[in-house]
TrEMBL record:
Keywords: Coiled coil. InterPro entries: SMC_hinge_sf. This is Unannotated protein. GO terms for cellular component: chromosome. Residues 108-142, 178-205 form a coiled coil. Signal peptide: none annotated. One of its GO terms (biological process) is chromosome organization. The keyword Coiled coil applies. GO terms for molecular function: ATP binding.
Length: 211
């Protein structure tokens, strides 16, 4: 923000509109904290420069120095308790507060990127699931059609088997009838032969009797 009033207006708006919280930097020209880096220490301003916001950086980081590690920061604070020490590992330490630790802790940007990546993967999986559902539905329809064709063919086969069984039964009955008819023909033929023989005898006897 260009001045303190603008920063206060932002905070007031956030509170009245229930928009959450924010950290606001105030860049008011001519408003310097006047912090001086103790001699013998390396100011963080040696590593951070910007001509456009030089006053703001000096106000924010004028009393911030750099140390190799947390132990070195402790030694500096023992002698200069008013400074803020930033280590090369990213720890920020003052006489009243220390923040840092493992580098495995994810930043908000990293967490947001991870959420976006997982959301993208979830969307891809949803699309894949929809595609698989469509393929399964198509396959199920095809199976249903083929099952109907199979059932129809099986029904025709069963009908053919039934007709064959009926014809076989009729053939057996006809065979039995033929067998019975053949026996009857043989019986009648034998009877005819016997009657013919009897007729011949009777004719012979009649002829003898006539003479």
């Amino acid at each position: 923000m260009k001045d303190l009033s603008s920063a206060v207006n932002v905070l007031t708006t956030l509170r009245s509109e229930n928009l959450g919280q924010a950290d606001v930097l105030v860049h008011e020209p001519g408003n310097r904290a006047g912090n001086q880096t103790p001699s013998g220490l390396t100011s963080l301003l040696s590593y951070v420069r910007s001509p456009q916001i030089a006053e703001l950086l000096e106000s924010l980081l004028g009393a911030t120095v750099v140390a190799d590690n947390a132990r070195s920061a402790e030694a500096i604070l023992r002698q200069h308790p008013r400074v803020t020490v930033v280590t090369r590992d990213g720890d920020v330490i003052t006489s009243q507060r220390a923040r840092g630790g493992s580098t495995s802790s994810s930043s908000l940007i990293e967490i947001k990127a991870l959420v976006e990546e997982l959301s993208k993967k979830l969307e891809e999986l949803n699309h894949k699931c929809d595609r698989l559902k469509f393929e399964i539905s198509s396959a199920a329809t095809e199976v249903e059609v083929k099952q109907s064709a199979f059932d129809a063919a099986l029904s025709k086969l069963n009908e053919s088997d039934a007709r064959i069984a009926a014809l076989t039964e009729q053939l057996a009955v006809s065979g039995q009838n033929i067998k019975s008819a053949t026996a009857e023909v043989e019986r009648l033929t034998s009877a005819i032969d016997e009657a013919t023989a009897a007729k011949s005898r009777d004719e012979n006897e009649l002829s003898i009797a006539s003479h």
